């Protein structure tokens, strides 16, 4: 385990640490859905003022919920990528990669290129820790330091991305941070660089649910722990329906709710998440994962 401490990102990049901590906690549960051997190293390697939990013994019921949520979504995105690559995608783009260690922990074969896009300070921190660990990915990993609200398509191209190859795109824990215009820009950029047969998986939260969650004590608690106002970073402005935008650009779209995904993993969220009628539980039921395959 690395002992060296590195400077952490500022602002929105700090949210990657909450997701990472939730993965570490989930991986320590006896009934875990996934394990991320890098999650604890990232938290250990961070010059953070607050201690983020790494094991199930350190957390309260609220954090148990976050860990299970992280467990389900990690499995959903892992399975999506595995399937997309099995079906012929040989290029992966992880948008808002944060401290996602898929490039290192998934069993990539056959010379897959994996692109990780995020803010420079997040990827600088990540690479400092990975360098300290001497970690080597079983893929060709490309780090793309870019703002997803800007011209990240050019940065991706400069890193070697080839739009003539079939691509699997993911955005996990990203859309609530984007405004309507930025989300449209993201989807157009993906579409313009995708060959038929390319696939996309987006974690989806309806804007009215983003608005409800922004004011929820659960999000406030995470903001307090990290010392960043996540409430101000989440964008609930009305926007065109994400699935509709994808469909209009030629993607065949599917949606699975978080609850359905949890159920199919054998861990119904009922016991841990549900207080029927509570606005958090009701909102959660409408969140999930949009997938698309480009058919045009
Ligand atoms: C909640 S974290 C999720 C990270 C990772 N996908 C995961 O699930 O562990 C949100 C991530 O989105 C990134 N992000 C948000 N807005 C961004 C933008 N405009 N450009 C680049 N990255 C952005 C943050 O830096 C952060 O790493």
What is the count of distinct domains? 1
CATH topology heading: Rossmann fold
Any idea what the shape is? globular
DSSP strand count = 7
Task: Give the termini separation.
Answer: 47 Å
Question: Considering DSSP H and I runs of 4 or more, what fraction of the residues is helical?
Answer: 40-55%
> Stretches where pLDDT falls below 50 for ≥5 residues?
none
User: Major beta sheet, specifics?
Assistant: 7 strands, mixed
| Radius of gyration from CA coordinates | 18 Å
What would you say the CATH architecture is? 3-Layer(aba) Sandwich
The molecules bound to the chains, other than polymers, are: S-adenosylmethionine
Family: Belongs to the UPF0677 family.
Protein name: S-adenosyl-L-methionine-dependent methyltransferase
GO molecular function: methyltransferase activity
InterPro entries: Ppm1/Ppm2/Tcmp, SAM-dependent_MTases_sf, SAM_mthyl_Trfase_ML2640-like
């Amino acid at each position: 385990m690395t002992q060296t401490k590195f400077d952490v990102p500022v602002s929105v990049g700090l949210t990657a640490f909450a997701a990472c901590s939730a993965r570490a906690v989930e991986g320590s549960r006896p009934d875990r859905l996934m394990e991320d051997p890098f999650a604890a190293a990232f938290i250990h390697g961070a010059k953070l003022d607050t201690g983020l939990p790494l094991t199930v013994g350190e957390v309260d019921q609220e954090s148990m919920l976050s860990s299970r949520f992280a467990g389900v979504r990690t499995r959903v995105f892992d399975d999506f990528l595995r399937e997309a690559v099995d079906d012929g995608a040989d290029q992966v783009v992880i948008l808002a990669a944060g401290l996602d260690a898929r490039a290192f922990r998934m069993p990539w074969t056959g010379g897959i290129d994996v692109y990780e896009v995020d803010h420079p300070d997040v990827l600088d921190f990540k690479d400092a820790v990975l360098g300290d660990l001497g970690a080597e990915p079983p893929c060709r990993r490309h780090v793309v330091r870019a703002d997803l609200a800007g011209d990240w398509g050019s940065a991706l191209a400069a890193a070697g991305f080839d739009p003539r190859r079939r691509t699997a795109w993911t955005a996990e824990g990203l859309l609530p941070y984007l405004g309507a215009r930025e989300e449209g820009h993201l989807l157009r950029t993906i579409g313009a660089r995708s060959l038929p047969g390319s696939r996309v998986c987006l974690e989806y939260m309806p804007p009215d649910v983003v608005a409800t969650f922004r004011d929820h004590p659960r999000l406030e608690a995470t903001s307090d722990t990290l010392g960043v106002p996540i409430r101000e970073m989440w964008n609930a402005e009305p926007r065109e329906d994400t699935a509709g935008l994808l469909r209009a650009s030629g993607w065949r779209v599917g949606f699975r709710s978080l609850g359905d995904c949890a159920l199919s993993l054998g861990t119904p969220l009922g016991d841990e998440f549900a207080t029927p009628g509570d606005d958090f539980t009701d909102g959660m039921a409408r969140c999930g994962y949009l997938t698309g395959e480009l058919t045009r």
